[in-house]
Design goal:
47% helix, 6-stranded parallel β-sheet, 13% strand, single chain, 6 strands, alpha/beta
């Protein structure tokens, strides 16, 4: 019997996935979770053979979630299910120890086959991504590299936080935020915050997060929108 954990923040998707998996007599879904904390707790409790993990769940980003799960249950094999096909994200997740990366457009038989493969063939890596992404990972990935701080700032900018709000959350000055954004614009060849966010998402340089509420704007200070320059 292959025990499986399903991690996705969409209940309807989890239900559909469970139905597909439970058509197999040797599959057992041992739990579901909708955010990173729930995912780590589930893996710590059940130690499933296979974890099916969405990259957009609320909480820690996918790389951190994979790292935490690998630390508490190294025997669990993690397969990513994602809408995003980007070489940078794929490269980071492979480095964190995932065993598979499937786009959500795969057919059910591909998913079932992937689950059996990572369980039964410890040395096998299962990838169902675009040829371009695979080629870039093999060749070392995109030449654009953002620092951890730049990625953190751009992810907050993607949530429409102003420079002041980002500075408050990260305990930095607004001048520092502007300097980082200027560097990000230069690296990406971006002309606006929206342009930078879109280019970074397209290249999987950042992951969208939807769980963090924005801090209250500073009184009597205009809040700049996403289209503001740093």
């Amino acid at each position: 019997m292959i025990s499986i954990a399903i991690i996705d923040d969409h209940a309807l998707f989890r239900e559909g996935l469970r139905e597909i998996l439970e058509t197999q007599e040797d599959f057992e879904v041992v739990g579901e979770a909708g955010d990173s904390e729930g995912a780590v707790a589930l893996v710590e409790r059940e130690h499933p053979d296979v974890v099916l993990l969405d990259v957009e769940i609320p909480g820690d980003d996918a790389t951190q979630t994979v790292t935490r799960m690998r630390a508490i249950s190294p025997e669990s094999q993690i397969i990513i299910l994602s809408m995003y096909d980007g070489p940078q994200l794929l490269s980071r997740l492979l480095s964190a120890g995932i065993r598979g990366y499937l786009l959500k457009s795969v057919h059910r038989q591909e998913l079932i086959s992937a689950v059996r493969s990572v369980r039964d063939e410890p040395d096998r890596l299962v990838l169902a991504v675009s040829r371009d992404s695979f080629a870039q990972v093999q060749g070392g990935g995109s030449k654009v590299v953002l620092t951890d701080r730049e990625r953190e700032i751009l992810e907050l900018a993607a949530q429409a936080l102003s420079n002041y709000q980002i500075a408050t959350r990260l305990t930095l000055t607004e001048a520092t935020i502007k300097r980082h954004l200027h560097n990000i614009f230069t690296k990406l060849g971006a002309v606006s915050r929206i342009d930078a966010v879109n280019k970074a998402l397209a290249a999987s340089l950042i992951s969208p997060r939807r769980d963090q509420p924005a801090p209250r704007p500073r009184p009597n200070t205009p809040v700049r929108g996403q289209r503001s320059f740093p």
